[in-house]
Amino acid sequence: MSEDDKLARRLEYSKRPETTGRVQKKSIKLVHSGQTVTTKELRHLRQYFDELDTDNSGTVDIDEITTHMQKVMMPRGNQNQLIRFPTSILGVIKKHIEQKDDLQFTDMIRIVYPKATRQEATEMDALVIGKKPMPPKPVELDPDEVLDVEAMWRRWDKDGNGELDAQEFKDVLFELGVGHTNPLEIKQLYEQVDTDGSGLISLDEFKAWWFAD
Description:
The protein is mainly alpha-helical. It is built from eleven helices and four strands. The strands form two sheets. Strands 1-2 form a two-stranded antiparallel ribbon. The protein has a two-stranded antiparallel sheet with strand order 3-4. Strand 1 (27-29) and strand 2 form a beta hairpin. Residues 13-24, 77-82 and 131-136 have low confidence and may be disordered.
């Protein structure tokens, strides 16, 4: 197999659904109301939830919602780009937290979309967070080829931290002759090779892509 064929194989591997971890569904239609909720709407809601969750615990407690409501009452110039939400909804959120101790994102979904079932709220949550990426499948590799790739890896890993960042990966693609690829495609390819979603490509992840069948 020529080097061009090998590169084409690796690029094709990166486009497979099982390697992308991407959710294809763009919206969900609620059974009881007939309302269609889009991924874009849910992402905005998730952004708001993350703003409330100041300690990044995955839930919103009474202190966080109280502090947020106090900020909402400030003049607009003092809110530091605060995302605004109707005070009536904030009141419902606070009451929920007082009764349940905290608020999860699926709870917020059901507050904003009161006719959504628990199952629908779970599905909407999945639209935002996506599916967990599949780990690289173990493959049997030729020891000499592995040594060659690891030698190239050490050269490509310019800062020597044991992982490739986005710029280093882009440099790899240029060296392989595919640096002319659309920047968006390069970004998507980078995310696909980074199967654990860490934001960096490990040697194991790179070898899984490099030696893909």
